[in-house]
Inverse folding.
Protein backbone atom coordinates (compact mmCIF):
# COMPACT_ATOMS: atom_id res chain seq x y z
CA UNK A 1 0.00 0.00 0.00
CA UNK A 2 1.34 3.42 -0.99
CA UNK A 3 2.23 5.76 1.85
CA UNK A 4 -0.07 8.76 2.40
CA UNK A 5 1.13 12.04 0.94
CA UNK A 6 -0.14 14.34 3.70
CA UNK A 7 -0.75 14.44 7.43
CA UNK A 8 -4.50 13.87 7.14
CA UNK A 9 -3.86 10.68 5.18
CA UNK A 10 -1.37 9.42 7.73
CA UNK A 11 -3.73 10.08 10.63
CA UNK A 12 -6.54 8.26 8.86
CA UNK A 13 -4.26 5.28 8.35
CA UNK A 14 -3.17 5.26 12.00
CA UNK A 15 -6.76 5.39 13.23
CA UNK A 16 -7.75 2.24 11.37
CA UNK A 17 -4.54 0.18 11.36
CA UNK A 18 -4.05 -1.08 14.92
CA UNK A 19 -6.82 -3.35 16.29
CA UNK A 20 -6.97 -1.72 19.74
CA UNK A 21 -7.31 2.00 20.48
CA UNK A 22 -5.59 1.55 23.86
CA UNK A 23 -2.91 -1.15 23.98
CA UNK A 24 -0.73 -0.70 27.06
CA UNK A 25 2.77 -2.17 27.11
CA UNK A 26 6.31 -1.11 26.28
CA UNK A 27 7.58 -4.06 24.24
CA UNK A 28 6.44 -3.09 20.75
CA UNK A 29 6.94 0.65 21.01
CA UNK A 30 10.28 0.17 22.77
CA UNK A 31 11.55 -2.09 20.02
CA UNK A 32 10.73 0.50 17.35
CA UNK A 33 12.26 3.26 19.48
CA UNK A 34 15.51 1.30 19.57
CA UNK A 35 15.45 0.81 15.79
CA UNK A 36 15.08 4.59 15.48
CA UNK A 37 17.96 5.19 17.88
CA UNK A 38 15.83 7.08 20.38
CA UNK A 39 17.28 5.37 23.46
CA UNK A 40 19.10 6.64 25.36
CA UNK A 41 17.52 9.99 24.57
CA UNK A 42 20.10 12.71 23.84
CA UNK A 43 18.49 15.37 26.07
CA UNK A 44 17.11 15.49 29.61
CA UNK A 45 13.55 14.22 29.97
CA UNK A 46 10.85 15.52 32.31
CA UNK A 47 7.90 13.12 32.48
CA UNK A 48 4.54 14.11 34.00
CA UNK A 49 1.88 11.65 35.22
CA UNK A 50 -1.34 12.05 37.19
CA UNK A 51 -5.10 11.93 36.89
CA UNK A 52 -5.66 15.69 36.82
CA UNK A 53 -3.22 18.53 36.23
CA UNK A 54 -0.56 16.79 34.16
CA UNK A 55 -1.32 18.87 31.07
CA UNK A 56 -1.00 22.07 33.11
CA UNK A 57 2.35 20.95 34.55
CA UNK A 58 3.60 20.10 31.07
CA UNK A 59 2.63 23.49 29.62
CA UNK A 60 4.08 25.38 32.59
CA UNK A 61 7.33 23.42 32.66
CA UNK A 62 7.87 23.92 28.93
CA UNK A 63 7.21 27.65 29.25
CA UNK A 64 9.59 27.95 32.22
CA UNK A 65 12.43 26.15 30.45
CA UNK A 66 11.91 28.17 27.26
CA UNK A 67 12.03 31.41 29.26
CA UNK A 68 15.38 30.23 30.63
CA UNK A 69 16.71 30.09 27.07
CA UNK A 70 16.38 26.35 26.47
CA UNK A 71 15.03 24.77 23.28
CA UNK A 72 12.07 22.74 24.52
CA UNK A 73 10.02 19.97 23.01
CA UNK A 74 6.64 19.33 24.68
CA UNK A 75 4.42 16.32 24.01
CA UNK A 76 0.81 16.45 25.20
CA UNK A 77 -2.39 14.54 24.50
CA UNK A 78 -5.07 14.50 23.38
CA UNK A 79 -5.33 17.48 21.07
CA UNK A 80 -8.28 19.85 20.81
CA UNK A 81 -8.46 21.00 17.18
CA UNK A 82 -5.35 19.78 15.36
CA UNK A 83 -3.06 16.81 15.88
CA UNK A 84 -0.08 19.19 15.60
CA UNK A 85 -0.90 20.57 19.06
CA UNK A 86 0.49 17.37 20.57
CA UNK A 87 4.06 18.05 19.39
CA UNK A 88 5.33 21.54 20.17
CA UNK A 89 8.76 23.11 19.80
CA UNK A 90 9.26 26.20 21.96
CA UNK A 91 5.51 26.51 22.26
CA UNK A 92 4.77 26.27 18.52
CA UNK A 93 3.03 23.17 17.15
CA UNK A 94 5.10 21.17 14.68
CA UNK A 95 4.13 21.70 11.04
CA UNK A 96 2.51 19.01 8.89
CA UNK A 97 5.65 18.30 6.89
CA UNK A 98 7.78 17.64 9.96
CA UNK A 99 5.23 15.22 11.41
CA UNK A 100 4.91 13.40 8.09
CA UNK A 101 8.70 12.96 7.97
CA UNK A 102 8.56 11.46 11.46
CA UNK A 103 5.78 9.07 10.44
CA UNK A 104 7.77 8.02 7.38
CA UNK A 105 10.82 7.27 9.54
CA UNK A 106 8.68 5.20 11.94
CA UNK A 107 7.09 3.31 9.06
CA UNK A 108 10.51 2.44 7.66
CA UNK A 109 11.72 1.22 11.06
CA UNK A 110 8.77 -0.73 12.42
CA UNK A 111 8.80 -3.68 10.01
CA UNK A 112 6.01 -6.06 11.02
CA UNK A 113 5.51 -4.48 14.47
CA UNK A 114 1.99 -3.10 14.88
CA UNK A 115 1.76 0.23 16.68
CA UNK A 116 -1.28 2.02 18.09
CA UNK A 117 -2.19 5.59 17.18
CA UNK A 118 -0.80 6.85 20.50
CA UNK A 119 2.39 4.83 20.25
CA UNK A 120 3.08 6.20 16.78
CA UNK A 121 2.34 9.74 17.93
CA UNK A 122 4.72 9.32 20.87
CA UNK A 123 7.53 8.04 18.67
CA UNK A 124 6.92 10.87 16.20
CA UNK A 125 7.30 13.44 18.98
CA UNK A 126 10.53 11.90 20.26
CA UNK A 127 11.94 11.55 16.74
CA UNK A 128 11.22 15.21 16.00
CA UNK A 129 12.65 16.38 19.31
CA UNK A 130 15.86 14.50 18.58
CA UNK A 131 16.06 15.88 15.04
CA UNK A 132 15.49 19.41 16.36
CA UNK A 133 18.15 18.91 19.05
CA UNK A 134 16.02 20.07 21.93
CA UNK A 135 17.68 20.87 25.25
CA UNK A 136 14.75 19.39 27.18
CA UNK A 137 11.84 17.08 26.38
CA UNK A 138 8.73 17.56 28.54
CA UNK A 139 6.49 14.52 28.15
CA UNK A 140 2.90 14.15 29.37
CA UNK A 141 1.90 10.56 30.11
CA UNK A 142 -1.16 9.47 28.18
CA UNK A 143 -2.72 6.89 30.51
CA UNK A 144 -1.36 5.56 33.79
CA UNK A 145 2.42 5.57 33.67
CA UNK A 146 4.09 2.22 34.10
CA UNK A 147 2.88 0.75 30.79
CA UNK A 148 2.24 3.99 28.88
CA UNK A 149 4.22 4.42 25.66
CA UNK A 150 5.89 7.57 27.04
CA UNK A 151 7.60 5.43 29.68
CA UNK A 152 10.03 3.99 27.13
CA UNK A 153 12.33 6.88 28.11
CA UNK A 154 14.03 7.21 31.48
CA UNK A 155 12.87 10.39 33.18
CA UNK A 156 15.62 12.60 34.60
CA UNK A 157 12.88 14.27 36.64
CA UNK A 158 9.31 13.01 37.09
CA UNK A 159 6.20 14.76 38.37
CA UNK A 160 3.13 13.06 39.79
CA UNK A 161 0.06 15.29 40.06
CA UNK A 162 -3.26 14.66 41.80
CA UNK A 163 -4.41 11.04 41.60
CA UNK A 164 -8.08 10.17 41.35
CA UNK A 165 -10.40 7.51 39.96
CA UNK A 166 -10.35 7.43 36.17
CA UNK A 167 -9.67 4.85 33.46
CA UNK A 168 -10.45 2.16 36.02
CA UNK A 169 -10.83 -0.56 33.40
CA UNK A 170 -7.09 -0.24 32.67
CA UNK A 171 -5.56 1.09 35.89
CA UNK A 172 -7.55 -0.36 38.79
CA UNK A 173 -10.61 0.34 40.90
CA UNK A 174 -8.92 2.25 43.74
CA UNK A 175 -6.70 5.30 43.97
CA UNK A 176 -4.14 3.10 45.74
CA UNK A 177 -3.91 0.77 42.73
CA UNK A 178 -3.81 3.70 40.30
CA UNK A 179 -1.02 5.37 42.31
CA UNK A 180 1.21 2.33 41.77
CA UNK A 181 0.71 2.67 38.00
CA UNK A 182 1.58 6.37 38.14
CA UNK A 183 4.71 5.66 40.18
CA UNK A 184 5.98 3.53 37.30
CA UNK A 185 7.52 6.61 35.65
CA UNK A 186 10.03 6.94 38.51
CA UNK A 187 13.66 5.96 38.03
CA UNK A 188 16.34 4.95 40.52
CA UNK A 189 18.12 7.87 42.20
CA UNK A 190 16.13 10.41 40.20
CA UNK A 191 13.80 13.03 41.74
CA UNK A 192 10.01 12.67 41.62
CA UNK A 193 8.12 15.86 42.42
CA UNK A 194 4.83 15.13 44.20
CA UNK A 195 2.44 17.99 43.47
CA UNK A 196 -0.11 17.19 46.17
CA UNK A 197 0.54 17.52 49.90
CA UNK A 198 -1.41 14.30 50.52
CA UNK A 199 -1.06 11.27 48.24
CA UNK A 200 -2.52 7.74 48.23
CA UNK A 201 -0.80 5.53 50.78
CA UNK A 202 0.71 3.27 48.12
CA UNK A 203 2.53 6.03 46.22
CA UNK A 204 5.57 6.59 48.43
CA UNK A 205 6.22 2.84 49.00
CA UNK A 206 6.09 2.34 45.23
CA UNK A 207 8.60 5.16 44.73
CA UNK A 208 10.82 3.69 47.44
CA UNK A 209 10.71 0.28 45.74
CA UNK A 210 11.86 1.98 42.52
CA UNK A 211 14.74 3.63 44.38
CA UNK A 212 13.51 7.08 43.38
CA UNK A 213 13.99 10.26 45.38
CA UNK A 214 10.58 11.74 46.30
CA UNK A 215 10.30 15.51 46.62
CA UNK A 216 7.13 15.96 48.65
CA UNK A 217 5.12 19.18 48.72
CA UNK A 218 5.19 20.52 52.25
CA UNK A 219 8.37 18.63 53.13
CA UNK A 220 11.28 18.76 50.67
CA UNK A 221 9.72 21.77 48.92
CA UNK A 222 6.80 24.12 49.57
CA UNK A 223 4.45 26.69 48.12
CA UNK A 224 1.88 29.26 49.24
CA UNK A 225 -0.60 31.24 47.16
CA UNK A 226 -2.34 34.53 47.93
CA UNK A 227 -3.65 37.55 46.03
CA UNK A 228 -2.73 36.26 42.59
CA UNK A 229 0.84 35.37 43.52
CA UNK A 230 2.55 32.05 44.08
CA UNK A 231 5.58 31.72 46.35
CA UNK A 232 7.64 28.57 45.86
CA UNK A 233 10.68 27.30 47.74
CA UNK A 234 12.19 24.56 45.61
CA UNK A 235 13.88 21.42 46.86
CA UNK A 236 17.18 23.14 46.10
CA UNK A 237 16.20 25.89 48.54
CA UNK A 238 15.69 28.52 45.85
CA UNK A 239 12.78 30.93 46.28
CA UNK A 240 10.48 32.23 43.57
CA UNK A 241 7.54 34.61 43.63
CA UNK A 242 5.58 34.43 40.40
CA UNK A 243 2.16 35.47 39.10
CA UNK A 244 -0.47 32.76 39.44
CA UNK A 245 -2.68 32.52 36.35
CA UNK A 246 -6.34 32.68 37.42
CA UNK A 247 -7.30 29.45 35.69
CA UNK A 248 -4.52 27.21 36.99
CA UNK A 249 -4.24 25.21 40.19
CA UNK A 250 -1.36 26.54 42.33
CA UNK A 251 -0.13 23.02 43.19
CA UNK A 252 0.40 22.22 39.52
CA UNK A 253 2.16 25.49 38.68
CA UNK A 254 4.36 25.10 41.75
CA UNK A 255 5.22 21.49 40.87
CA UNK A 256 6.29 22.56 37.38
CA UNK A 257 8.55 25.23 38.83
CA UNK A 258 10.08 22.81 41.34
CA UNK A 259 10.70 20.21 38.62
CA UNK A 260 12.34 22.63 36.21
CA UNK A 261 14.51 23.95 39.05
CA UNK A 262 15.87 20.41 39.41
CA UNK A 263 17.06 20.46 35.80
CA UNK A 264 18.43 23.95 35.23
CA UNK A 265 19.18 27.23 36.93
CA UNK A 266 16.05 29.30 36.52
CA UNK A 267 16.22 33.01 37.29
CA UNK A 268 13.32 34.61 39.15
CA UNK A 269 12.81 36.99 36.23
CA UNK A 270 12.54 34.16 33.72
CA UNK A 271 10.00 32.39 35.92
CA UNK A 272 7.85 35.52 36.05
CA UNK A 273 8.02 36.01 32.27
CA UNK A 274 7.06 32.40 31.63
CA UNK A 275 3.95 32.38 33.81
CA UNK A 276 2.61 35.89 33.34
CA UNK A 277 -0.60 35.54 31.37
CA UNK A 278 -0.03 31.86 30.59
CA UNK A 279 -3.14 30.10 29.25
CA UNK A 280 -3.41 26.32 29.01
CA UNK A 281 -5.92 25.55 26.25
CA UNK A 282 -9.14 23.99 27.50
CA UNK A 283 -8.22 24.29 31.18
CA UNK A 284 -10.61 26.87 32.61
CA UNK A 285 -9.88 28.89 29.51
CA UNK A 286 -11.96 32.07 29.45
CA UNK A 287 -13.43 33.72 26.37
CA UNK A 288 -15.64 36.83 26.15
CA UNK A 289 -19.06 36.27 24.65
CA UNK A 290 -21.28 39.31 24.23
CA UNK A 291 -21.55 40.90 27.65
CA UNK A 292 -20.85 37.58 29.33
CA UNK A 293 -17.96 35.14 29.64
CA UNK A 294 -17.48 31.54 28.57
CA UNK A 295 -15.28 29.05 30.41
CA UNK A 296 -13.90 26.03 28.55
CA UNK A 297 -12.73 23.13 30.69
CA UNK A 298 -12.00 19.54 29.68
CA UNK A 299 -12.91 18.29 33.20
CA UNK A 300 -14.14 14.70 32.81
CA UNK A 301 -13.93 13.08 36.25
CA UNK A 302 -15.19 14.00 39.74
CA UNK A 303 -11.89 15.45 40.99
CA UNK A 304 -11.56 17.71 37.96
CA UNK A 305 -15.22 18.73 38.26
CA UNK A 306 -14.70 19.59 41.94
CA UNK A 307 -11.72 21.74 41.01
CA UNK A 308 -13.76 23.50 38.35
CA UNK A 309 -16.60 24.09 40.81
CA UNK A 310 -14.18 25.62 43.33
CA UNK A 311 -12.79 27.93 40.63
CA UNK A 312 -16.31 29.03 39.71
CA UNK A 313 -17.01 29.86 43.36
CA UNK A 314 -13.85 31.95 43.55
CA UNK A 315 -15.07 34.08 40.63
CA UNK A 316 -18.72 34.95 41.37
CA UNK A 317 -21.05 35.62 38.45
CA UNK A 318 -24.67 36.67 38.13
CA UNK A 319 -25.52 33.15 36.97
CA UNK A 320 -23.63 30.19 35.53
CA UNK A 321 -25.12 28.08 32.75
CA UNK A 322 -23.48 24.83 31.68
CA UNK A 323 -23.14 22.67 28.60
CA UNK A 324 -21.64 19.20 28.57
CA UNK A 325 -21.15 15.98 26.68
CA UNK A 326 -19.34 13.20 28.53
CA UNK A 327 -18.00 9.77 27.68
CA UNK A 328 -20.12 6.89 28.88
CA UNK A 329 -17.34 5.26 30.93
CA UNK A 330 -17.03 8.28 33.24
CA UNK A 331 -18.50 8.74 36.73
CA UNK A 332 -21.47 10.87 35.70
CA UNK A 333 -22.98 11.00 39.19
CA UNK A 334 -19.71 12.25 40.69
CA UNK A 335 -19.18 14.89 38.00
CA UNK A 336 -22.68 16.31 38.25
CA UNK A 337 -22.73 16.21 42.05
CA UNK A 338 -19.64 18.41 42.16
CA UNK A 339 -21.02 21.01 39.75
CA UNK A 340 -24.74 21.01 40.59
CA UNK A 341 -24.55 23.79 43.22
CA UNK A 342 -22.87 26.14 40.73
CA UNK A 343 -25.24 25.73 37.76
CA UNK A 344 -28.42 27.70 37.15
CA UNK A 345 -29.10 25.53 34.11
CA UNK A 346 -27.44 22.80 32.08
CA UNK A 347 -27.63 21.65 28.47
CA UNK A 348 -26.60 18.03 27.96
CA UNK A 349 -25.57 17.08 24.43
CA UNK A 350 -24.97 14.04 22.29
CA UNK A 351 -21.86 13.44 20.21
CA UNK A 352 -23.15 11.75 17.05
CA UNK A 353 -20.61 9.36 15.62
CA UNK A 354 -18.70 8.97 18.89
CA UNK A 355 -19.39 5.44 20.14
CA UNK A 356 -17.96 6.21 23.59
CA UNK A 357 -20.23 9.19 24.30
CA UNK A 358 -22.94 8.82 26.94
CA UNK A 359 -26.47 8.97 25.50
CA UNK A 360 -28.29 12.25 26.07
CA UNK A 361 -31.05 10.57 28.07
CA UNK A 362 -28.51 9.04 30.44
CA UNK A 363 -26.77 12.40 30.92
CA UNK A 364 -30.07 14.15 31.62
CA UNK A 365 -31.11 11.51 34.15
CA UNK A 366 -27.77 11.62 35.96
CA UNK A 367 -27.76 15.42 36.08
CA UNK A 368 -31.30 15.54 37.40
CA UNK A 369 -30.56 12.91 40.03
CA UNK A 370 -27.57 14.96 41.20
CA UNK A 371 -29.77 18.02 41.70
CA UNK A 372 -28.78 20.06 38.66
CA UNK A 373 -31.46 22.64 37.95
CA UNK A 374 -33.20 23.22 34.60
CA UNK A 375 -31.68 20.42 32.54
CA UNK A 376 -32.29 20.56 28.78
CA UNK A 377 -31.22 18.07 26.11
CA UNK A 378 -29.77 18.67 22.68
CA UNK A 379 -28.93 16.09 20.01
CA UNK A 380 -25.47 17.53 19.32
CA UNK A 381 -23.11 20.32 20.33
CA UNK A 382 -24.30 22.74 17.64
CA UNK A 383 -27.88 22.49 18.90
CA UNK A 384 -26.66 22.76 22.48
CA UNK A 385 -24.69 25.87 21.65
CA UNK A 386 -27.83 27.53 20.27
CA UNK A 387 -29.39 27.05 23.70
CA UNK A 388 -26.39 28.18 25.75
CA UNK A 389 -24.95 31.11 23.80
CA UNK A 390 -27.82 33.61 24.22
CA UNK A 391 -27.84 33.10 27.98
CA UNK A 392 -24.12 33.83 28.21
CA UNK A 393 -24.10 36.69 25.74
CA UNK A 394 -26.79 38.40 27.82
CA UNK A 395 -24.39 38.91 30.72
CA UNK A 396 -24.12 35.57 32.45
CA UNK A 397 -21.31 33.01 32.57
CA UNK A 398 -21.23 29.79 30.57
CA UNK A 399 -19.12 26.75 31.30
CA UNK A 400 -18.45 24.01 28.76
CA UNK A 401 -17.07 20.80 30.26
CA UNK A 402 -17.00 17.01 30.14
CA UNK A 403 -14.44 15.98 27.54
CA UNK A 404 -11.78 17.13 25.10
CA UNK A 405 -14.35 16.26 22.41
CA UNK A 406 -16.84 18.66 23.99
CA UNK A 407 -14.50 21.62 24.28
CA UNK A 408 -13.07 21.02 20.81
CA UNK A 409 -16.58 20.82 19.36
CA UNK A 410 -17.61 24.16 20.86
CA UNK A 411 -14.47 26.11 19.94
CA UNK A 412 -15.51 26.61 16.29
CA UNK A 413 -18.89 27.93 17.46
CA UNK A 414 -17.18 30.86 19.16
CA UNK A 415 -16.52 32.41 15.76
CA UNK A 416 -20.28 32.61 15.12
CA UNK A 417 -22.11 33.00 18.42
CA UNK A 418 -25.89 32.85 18.51
CA UNK A 419 -27.58 35.98 19.75
CA UNK A 420 -31.23 34.95 19.98
CA UNK A 421 -32.59 32.22 22.18
CA UNK A 422 -34.70 29.73 20.22
CA UNK A 423 -38.41 29.72 21.02
CA UNK A 424 -38.21 26.18 22.43
CA UNK A 425 -35.77 27.36 25.08
CA UNK A 426 -37.78 30.31 26.31
CA UNK A 427 -39.86 30.27 29.43
Amino acid sequence: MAEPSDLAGWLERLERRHPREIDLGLGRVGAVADRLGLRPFPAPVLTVAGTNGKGTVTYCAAALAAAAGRRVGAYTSPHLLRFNERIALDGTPADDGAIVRAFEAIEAARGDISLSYFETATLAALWLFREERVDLAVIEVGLGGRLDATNILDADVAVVTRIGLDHREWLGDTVEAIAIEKAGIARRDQPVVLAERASPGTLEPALAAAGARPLRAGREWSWTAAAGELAVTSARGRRFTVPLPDALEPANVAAALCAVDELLTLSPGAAVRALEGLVVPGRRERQPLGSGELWLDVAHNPDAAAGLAAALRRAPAAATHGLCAIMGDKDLAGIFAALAPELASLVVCGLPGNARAAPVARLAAAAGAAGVAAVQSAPDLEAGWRLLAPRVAGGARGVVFGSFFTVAGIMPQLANPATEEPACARG
